[in-house]
Amino acid sequence: MKKYSYLLLIFLSIYSTGCEKDETITELEEATLSVSPENLNFDENNPSNNQITIISNVSWNIDVSNNALKVDKSEGGPGESKVSVTDIPAGETYMLTISTVKRNETDKTISKSVAVTRQLQDFTSETVYYDNLDKATWSGSGNPFIDQWDGYINAMGTGAGNIEYTGRTVSVRNNFQSSGYTGASRKNAFYFGGKDAYVTVNNIELQPGQTTFQLSFGCCKFEGDFDTSSNIKVYISGDGSSMKPLTYNRSATKSWALATALFSIQHTVPKTLSIMFVADENNIRMDDIKLVTSNQSTEQIFDFSGINYLCAETPKTIKTNDNYKYVTHFAETLTSQKHVRNYTACYDTYRHNPMWVAYPVHQCYHEKGFGRTNPDPWRPDPKFSASEQSVIYPSDWSNWPWTANGNKPTDSYYYWTPYNNRNFTKGHLLRSADRGGAESEMNIQTFYPTNIAPEAYLYEEHWSKVEELLSDTWECSDTTYVVTGCYYADNSYKTYDASNWGNQSALSKECIIPTARYKVILRTKSGSSGKSIAECSSEEVMAIGFWFPQNLNNENPNTTPPLSNYIYSVSEIEQMIGGEFEFFPTVPTEVKNRVNINDWPGLN
Question: Which domains are assigned to the chain?
Fold first, then answer.
């Protein structure tokens, strides 16, 4: 009896244990996962072809073999889901792995992989611009500068139809021909004749869709290792005014070698591109300049369509005139070696004299003082023809400083003829001293005709005082912005260029004399706000205008009236010149409508 009782107890114990197990543990449904397709070819033209279908009865997540493989979601829940591959580099295959999420410690993980491939698109590089400079060889004496002879130009490519070269102290030579690199064309090459010598390739036409480029050029140095950071500096511009530095690679050899640079343009592709090459010493040569499209990746990315504030001092043209030609000149600062905007000019190719010159005033423009180049380096603006500009430079200007002739040009016909028995000074609109640095490119550019107009003030003291105050007192760390212009009340006031004072030459042509000059000035009130003008409120900035009548009728005033008689608001100056231009277009009208002499030290 005891034996049966003992067996009963064992049975009941087993039965009760089994009932307890059934009540606390539920059997899990086996996890399932299906993924399709197993291989996906990324279609950059049709995003619907880049989807992966995931069907699972449990949650899942995604892992990628390379972070460059992008998907629109990385996890999901039970049911059917769609995952889109949004990007993968061309020419690559990366793995995308979908895995189920474990529901408890004993659950199994199921994984499925998808191979994602993006094929390299058929790519054919286009030559946008190429010039071996070898169309013809110079047969005259000496070595011609690029603005004296254009027979070398041999530009070709999809964007080479309107190519123009401008520069300073760059000649065409064939006495040390290019060699030693693939594509070296020998024959002609550009020769940089000294520090700050430069050549700019203008008007390279770009097409929509051309976004990545390779620039190459052969170059050499006469002696010493080649330094890519200074021997030749390269800049590009998408609008002809804002130059941005471009880094390139090249071996250090002084001999001929090929330099290359990759860059991309994001957002809006400009219609034209300009490329500037600046040398830091003489005996540097360049040949075979080439720009082609590329599909290589690059870290040099330029945006010519972003939020770029207009230059605060550049006027807006209200009344268009086909005779007006605009130019912006750049130069290197003398100590900090920054590539800066020197000045912008609006030049009247009918009157053969400037309408205005706009420029910033800041300490960086005279880092080595206010030295003036000696002798005066009168020369043509390289971006204008002789027929467009006033010939107030000697025909042998390229021989400056004329050491063989006692530092004087052999040609004496580089003045204006007198008017009404009055001689004219070749008057700078941007003062030469405000671009200090004897023999520097920055200073030499102030001697271009685009910055010069016949000068014969009725009250010269007024002009001198404002120029001195501008540099000595109103210059500030925020930058002061200036427009100096010419007003032509009557086109009957005429003189002739290319003259030896009263004696004209075969090159002489009619030039219109301005009846007055003006100067409008803008800056922050504090002078040290650290803001651009566009970021300032109307109460943070101030502006003023000055009027300087010319003495063309041989007036002989007994006294000089106070300068305050010739102070105006900027808006009044706009009206006085006939509303042709809007000055300081980035500032509110209320700033241009008011003028407070007390804001400007030295006037009260």
Answer: 33-118 (2.60.40.10), 127-303 (2.60.120.260), 316-597 (3.40.570.10)
